[in-house]
Q: What sequence folds into this?
């Protein structure tokens, strides 16, 4: 399952980030979004979702949310 399909208010563990875009992968890593880390879905918006990683909140668009497997 990916973040786009996740339930609001639930905390998940990131299993993998599936992307061939090295820049996107590095960006997610700097946010703390990598395998084994908890991620909480705050809300779903029309174009993506708001998530909480460590001490920050981030808005991910649908393409980014689909790349994060939980």
A:
């Amino acid at each position: 399952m990916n973040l786009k399909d996740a339930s609001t208010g639930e905390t998940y563990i990131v299993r993998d980030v599936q992307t061939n875009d090295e820049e996107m992968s590095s960006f997610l890593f700097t946010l703390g979004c990598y395998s084994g880390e908890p991620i909480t879905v705050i809300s779903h918006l029309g174009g993506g979702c708001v998530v909480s990683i460590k001490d920050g909140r981030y808005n991910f668009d649908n393409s980014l949310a689909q790349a994060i497997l939980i």
In short: The mean pLDDT is 93. The chain has two helices and six strands. The first helix runs from residue 22 to 31.
